[in-house]
Amino acid sequence: MTTRAETMAFEEVLKRFPLPVSVVTVGRGGAENALTVSWACPASFDPPHILIAVDRLHYSVDFLKSTKNFALNLLKADQRKMAGHFARQSFVGEDKLEAASTHEGATGAALFDDALAWLDCEIVRTLEVGDHLLCIGRVVEARVLAEGPALLTTDGVQYGKSRP
What we know:
Layout: H1 4-15, E1 22-28, E2 31-37, E3 40-44, E4 49-55, H2 60-67, E5 69-74, H3 80-87, E6 102-104, E7 110-112, E8 117-129, E9 132-144
Antiparallel strand pairs: 1-2, 1-5, 3-4, 4-9, 5-8, 6-7, 8-9
């Protein structure tokens, strides 16, 4: 078991580790959710795959396991407010996706019209590691929508594990 001091030290290192901030959308057919993630990375070039890590206690884990899809919407450097909106828990009956202009991707996941870029993915494998669920998605479609830098965790975005 990891001590609180070890966890805090790990979080302090990660605060200095620049990672892109994205909004992951999950679901299809009107049953959808979205969450801010910073743990995402390429997993394969050929064929293209991406890996995301989601807290196992997050509401969206059930969507990921049942719909087997997600979209990774890479945020622009000036989209901190959007990152914050999707980082918080939803209120009962709230549709957080109403705050963004989206369209449905090939997998059924919501794609942000004003993201820096997006990847639309079908999940090919999941793995529970510690307190997170790793999802590897085969990229079905990818688009760059704008030029400029991505929002990074080192850009003043609050960072740390959600605690119930």
